[in-house]
Amino acid sequence: xxxxxxxxxMTGSDGYVHVRIWDKSYFIxxxxxxxxxxxxxxxxxxxxxxxxxxxxxxSGSVALNPSGRAVILSIGSxxxxxxxxxxxxxxxxxxxxxxxxxxxxxxxxxxxxSPKKGGVAx
Length: 122
Hints:
Layout: E1 7-11, E2 17-21, E3 24-28, H1 30-39, E4 43-47, E5 57-64, E6 70-75, E7 78-83, H2 84-91, E8 97-103
Antiparallel strand pairs: 1-2, 1-8, 2-3, 4-5, 5-6, 6-7, 7-8
């Protein structure tokens, strides 16, 4: 990882796509990859259950952005993004890994909002 990246997406020998964000590990099931890439549905981002006998826990979601050219991973209110073509290369085993980046929040700054909406744009 570089100092600007938030995590890494890695291919696994078991067909899963492994995601490491900061110090936590997640994964995407192989069955969900088709729904994400070909149907465009949102799929769960899973985390190992601390109880060894329990099933995985959904900790977030994975979806394509509106243009379909990027993959967005959401965990709570924080979103991460990587190019769809790089994600597909990792998922199919053509690349071993790819870095992902945190998407800045969508909180507008008052000084750049138009005057019609209560801002003071010049």
